[in-house]
Amino acid sequence: MSLLQKFSKIVDKTINESTVRSMKKQYIDEMNKTPEKKIVELSRSPKGRPKLLGKYDEEVVDYVKKLRATGAIVNKQILIACATGILEHKCRSMLQENGGHISLHRSWAESFLRRIGFVKRKGTKAARKVPANFDELRVEFLGSVSKIITENNIPEELVMNFDQTNISMIPCGNWRMEEEGSKQVEITGLEDKRQITALLTCTMAGNLLPPQLLYQGKTDQCHPPVKFPKGWDIHHSENHWSNEQTMLRFIDTILLPYIHEQGDRLNLPLKQPALAIFDVYAAHRVESFINKLQKAGILIKYVPGGCTGELQPLDLSGNSQIKEVVKSCFTAWYAQQVGTQLKAGKTVKNVEINLKLSNIKPIHANWIIQAIQKVKDQKGVIRNGWVRSGMLTVDK
């Protein structure tokens, strides 16, 4: 008891008896290990949970900080990729896919970045707001779609939704990782030309049509040197966004060939109408585009403004799945690049991944081919968007 009182007086704080017993035991244990050494201070146990990557943690830290110092992209996807590459080279048995205990996921990546002094900085884009009268708009929209389909006897194969979605060549998202307290640093590789626009089309029957891919440029020279699947429309615009010319082309290269093919397959009447459902994006409201749709026998129905997240099938299921596959392809490729350079004798700090547009564009094109083919094979994913929108009441 006197020892307990002594320690409490020294630290000016009441100490539990169990604490003193633990300190005494640790002292005796250390004395037994090195009896010739005078113990003046007890060693402290490391605080917090052990690092997931163990002894390889510092190598990943060094690589991430090197990226940031050079103005390169630092985000969760790249962190997961480089950590995977390092472990594949150093100790691949640690990874879950190789039978180990480590699974590198986004929550781990965010925790890692925060631990080494990085913070999230949210973009300035305002949050999307659903219209106050959304319930009324939804009832009117769904009723109108149902009426058009019924009155014109339109089969599910000809009820179409098309939508543009941007696909980044290097996954970035709307959040950036910057060192805490640092000034703004220019990040290489985030300019708009490192994205393309994919104009996707799906049907109520669960079909995913060939896409129109728009690259940034003025001639075909901006297209990647890749052999795309038959039926795909590879085109361009000055800013890679859809415009009047690309939308008119879209009717000729994607919609009409599909409609004619389905007409023959289903033995439909020659003047069988189709229905196209799409949002109020500016290029969709051009008079020449609307007239061309109507002339082709394609009826139109706009998704109410501000309601695409609730009523547009591709926004509900399809777009995100394709982007996720592209991200997974990027992670696997990046990890492989890291591992290959380490095997060649480079140190982690000297690993450099070539993310130049000329190098990444054809690689990215092949990721898109894989992604669209994968989602195309999963009709349930596409039909789920129609179910969630309310336009398809039962997923048959």
UniProtKB/TrEMBL annotation:
Domain DDE-1: 193-343
Domain of life of the native organism: Eukaryota
Record GO cellular component, one term: nucleus
InterPro entries referenced in this protein's UniProt entry, alphabetically: CenT-Element_Derived (IPR050863), DDE_SF_endonuclease_dom (IPR004875)
A GO MF label: DNA binding
Listed PANTHER family: POGO TRANSPOSABLE ELEMENT WITH KRAB DOMAIN, TRANSPOSON
Protein name, per record: DDE-1 domain-containing protein
